[in-house]
Amino acid sequence: MVPGQSDDGYRGGTALATHVLVGGAWLGAWAWRGVARSLRAKGHDVYPVSLTGLGERVHLGGPGVDLETHIADVVNLIDSDGLDDVTLVGHSYAGIVITGVADRVPDRLGQIVYLDSVPFADGQSFLDISPPEAQAALRHQVASLGDGWRLPFPTFEALGQEASLAGLDEPARRLMREKATPHPFGTYEQPLRLGGMATAPARYGRVIVACDDIRALLAAGIPGFEVFREPAWQVVDLATGHWPMLSAPDDLAAVLDRLPTRDIDRG
Known about the structure:
By secondary structure, the protein is α/β, with parallel strands linked by helices. The chain has one domain (about 10-260): Alpha/Beta hydrolase fold, catalytic domain (Rossmann fold, 3-Layer(aba) Sandwich), CATH 3.40.50. About 35% of the residues lie in helices and about 15% in strands. It has 10 helices and 10 strands. It has helices spanning about 35-40, 65-80, 95-105, 130-145, 155-160, 170-180, 185-190, 210-220, 245, 250-260, and strands at about 10, 15, 20, 45-50, 85-90, 110-115, 150, 185, 205-210, 235. The chain has a 6-stranded parallel beta sheet with strand order 4-3-5-6-9-10, with helices on both faces. Helix 2 packs across helix 3.
């Protein structure tokens, strides 16, 4: 038992949780090492995920890998390990993945956490959030550099044009360069298909951890983002760039550690 932890799963008034951590494009379970280490030191159970075709599962990638493959990766982990009351964290691209997971296994979740990401709607693909010229550029990269199905990891100069690099020091950038793998592009193109979530109210907590990019969008009052100010949503600011698991792992772990896991309002 972790010092200060009681038999009922609480530590000093804080409920312990089972965290399933899903990274964004090009990332595998390796990206969560610092966060996982910190959460485990606090007594939480942690399951970092490498989606099919990414991380140590890069050899399983192929043209047939799509969004449903990645949703199934996470659903199967939850089912096979018998996980309940899960705090499901999805970063960036994985926002669309965890939205699908929540649709498939809502009763297994305690809360769903969008990490510098937002939920996606039924029929929406990840590619849909990019303007037409950006979509065309991505498709050109896949065709010319990725054998028609892989999206290569870009340069940091290119990344910085799309998202905040704040807090990514040289060791973090070197780790990303060494570990990042091309992303199966079919996961970007396939529309999300929702069943129960489209009509039934969510019974789990809903959280957005807003780093620099999402913080800016929320502050700008962009239409559609006002929903996240409703009572059903908890918005937590984290002042760092778009890859907080690498730029501020201990700060991110502290945010996740403080999130409520019992007796929360899931109405």
